[in-house]
Amino acid sequence: MTRRGFLQSAAIAGAGLAASGLPARAQTAASSTPRLKLGLDNFSLRALGWKAAQLLDYAAAQKLDVVFFSDLKVFESHEASYLRSIKAQADRLGIEIQVGTFSICPLSKSLTRDYGTPAEHLKLALRIAAALGSRIVRCVLGSGEDRLAEGGIERQIEATVQVLRSVREPAIDAGIRFAVENHAGDMQAWELVALIEAAGKEFVGATMDPGNAAWTIEDPMVNLETLAPYALASGIRDTSVWETPDGAHAQWTSIGEGNTYWPGYVSRFAELCPQTPFTLEIISQYGRSIPYFKDEFWNVFSKARAHEFARFVAFAKRGKPRLGYFVPPGRNRSEFEREFQKSDLERSIQYCREVLEIGRKT
Looking at the domain covering 3-354, what would its CATH class be? Predict the structure, then answer.
C-alpha cells in the first residue's frame, strides 16, 4: 500500500468504508454448507473505549452474528443484574456472545493479576460467561517472551495446564470450555495442541489466530489445519509478510490486504470447523521482525518442524514491503487511532461479506 493509499483509507474512517474497490469476487466455500458466522473482537476497536452495550449496538448496525468480548474490563460491572441486561440486549439484537480474558499462566510476565489467583480469575470468567450464554472462555498463556524464559515454553505450558486442571470441574459443571489462544508469539499450533491434550480436550479447546501464527513462523493454513479440530473461537486478521536480509517481516493488516489467500483459507475453515465463528480481530498497528537467518533465533523454536517452516518461507515470498502504522503529521494521535481502527475493521467486514460471503445476516 502506498503512503497515499494508507492516508486515504484512514481519512474517510468517520464517513464510511475505504474508497478503493474490492477485489473481484473469488471462489468461496461450497454453497451447500451454511455460511460461517461473522463476528468482531472488541480489541479491534479498543481506542474507542466502548463498553459492552455500545459494542453490541455497533455489531447490530454492522449486521454481525457474534461479538467476542475478549477481556473482562469491557463490562461496566460483573454484577448479575448488569450481566442480565447485556444478555437481554444481545438476545434482542440476535447476537451471540463469546467471553474471553487474558493470561492465566502463573509464570508469565503477562499474567493477569486483577482478579485474584489464576484459578479465581477463571472462575470469575466462567460465572460471567454463564450469565451471558457464552459456551467458551478464551484465555492465553502469554507472549513470545515466554519462549525465552527459564525452562522455555514447555515449562510455561506445564504451569498453564495445571491452572486449567484446577478448574476442570466448575467448567464441566457449567458446560463451558476454555479456548486457549496461540497468542503474540507464545505457542506454535502444535504446542497449543499439546497443551489442550494435556489439560483435557473435554473442557479445553483453541482460539485460532492466523495473525499470531505469523509471529511464530507459521503459515496461516498450517495453523488452521492443526488447530481446526480443537477450534472453539477465532481472532482473524490478514498479515503482510515479506523477505528481509535477516529473514522476514510480518505486518498485520485488514482482511484482503496481506498475503493470505482468503478464498482457500475460508473454504478450508468451513470444511474443518464450520460452527466456529469467523471473528475479526483487526489490529494493523503492529508488526514484527522475524530474523530466521540469525542463529540465535532458533534457540526457541524446534528445528524438527522444518517442513512447516518451509511453508512459512513460501508465504513470505508472496509478499511485498509495505508501510507500517504511523500518525500523519498534524493529526491528533488519539483521534486518528480511533478513525484508523474503525476504518480497518469496516473494510474487513465488507471484504468478508461481499467477497468471501461470510456472515449469516444480510
Answer: alpha beta
